[in-house]
Amino acid sequence: MGEQRLIATCAKAISPMHRRIFGWFGVAILLSLFAGAFVTHLFDSGSGEWRRVLQGTRRIASAKFAEVWDDEAERSRLAHQIASELDVEVTLRDESGRTIEAIGAPCDRPDAFFTPTQDGQAVGKVDICTKNRGARGISLLLGLFTAGVVLWLLAHRVSRLIGRPISALVNATDAIGRGEYDVNIPCGRHDPPEIMRLSRAVADMAKRIKKQLSDQRELLATVSHEVRSPLARVRLLSELLRDESSAVRKAKLLDDLEQEIVEIDDLVGGLLAQSRLDFSALSIRSTDVLALVKRTIERAGAELVPNVSGKVVPVACDATLFARALSNLLENARKHAGGATAVTLRFSRDELVVEVEDRGPGISDENRERVFEAFFSAEAGTSESLGLGLALVRRIARAHGGEAMTRPNKGGGSVVGFVIPNPTVAVSPSPVQRLEERLEA
């Protein structure tokens, strides 16, 4: 319940995330506009260069008008020239402020003015107004407003682009937490690549979890069915032992009981090995596989000496699982092929090959891959199956980066084994090995 409440809280927090991003973008745009206006005003008011240019222009214009102020025709011509060249409105006033001449609309609030002087005395005033001042101000404001709207629309698009797939991911993980593994995380081609990769990873994770749980349920159901048979025989044997008075018969029943217990123990051992593989609990260490193979053959009760080719080197593997794989191969040969006839180890630079040969009926070509399926039965309608043995061999080999394989034996029967790639590891020799090397030298 705590996890579900946490997921629900995250969903509520993320669902309006694109709106919050949208709002923050709007605030950022407004702050940017105010900051730009402030900086522009600061630099404009603090710059003396523009003031010097403006003052110089005023002095030149004032001097020109002062030269022609008393000549009405020349004064008017100069005013018209300025109005035409600069596309402005010019109003000429006398020293009392009375309008002498207006070119264009009269300037009530001039943008600039000149004061012609003669002998240090002002003789009049020239007011200059730019045309369509209000329209230009409105156009400037409209331009800034349009730029802000465009930026805000882009912010809305970006916020949705980020917020929508994250909300979909939250909903998908919420569904996975409820046990719904068929999740669909929609991704658009314009979504961020990182979000798309994360969505695919979550979908693949859900599929793997679903398959793993399905495999575990199937495995447990099948193992439960497989265990019932030896348990039923154990119960029967125990009842027979209670009623049996013959010592010889009791010894035979005890042997049969021990065999059933061994079979149950083998099933439990297979389940434990499966669990280690499911949780990737491998303990990879440098291992003397030749000595390990000899011990495994001895424990299986087979009187075989392993055939070795290549230079024997330490192998990086999980010794327990390696021994379980070889033990399963030997047990499979004993149950279905009359026993193993040879065990071969082939060391090479790139891989280690472990093979177990038998002289049994062999494996048909169509079943050569299916024998590695859990509880595969070669004959339909029969209760006898290969159990977990070869399926576990394949899983152990793949956990080590290798593979299990089978092929026909030249003299009849089959060869079943597994391969571990790149098995050699750099290890320091033990003190015993160093002593042996010195004695040999």
* Biggest sheet: strand arrangement: 8-10-11-13-12
Average predicted local confidence, pLDDT: 76
Number of strands: 13
Largest sheet: 5 strands, mixed
Q: State the helical fraction.
A: 55-70%
The unreliable regions are 6-15, 380-386, 425-441
Calculate Rg over CA atoms: 47 Å
Beta-sheet strand percentage?
A: 5-15%
CATH fold title of the largest domain = Beta-Lactamase
Helix segment tally: 11
Question: Given the C-alpha coordinates, what overall shape results?
Answer: rod-shaped
What is the CATH-assigned architecture of the largest domain? 2-Layer Sandwich
Domain module count: 3
First CA to last CA: what distance?
Answer: 70 Å
From the helix content, strand content and strand pairing, which structural class follows?
alpha+beta
Helix/strand order: HHHHEEEEEEHHHEHEEHEEHEEH
CATH class of the largest domain reads Alpha Beta
Please tell me about this protein's structure.
It is a single chain. The chain is of the alpha+beta class and 441 residues long. The protein folds into 3 domains: 180 residues, Beta-Lactamase; 77 residues, Helix Hairpins (Orthogonal Bundle), CATH 1.10.287; 159 residues, 2-Layer Sandwich (Heat Shock Protein 90), CATH 3.30.565. Strand 1 and strand 2 form a beta hairpin. The longest helix is centred in the middle third of the chain and has 51 residues.
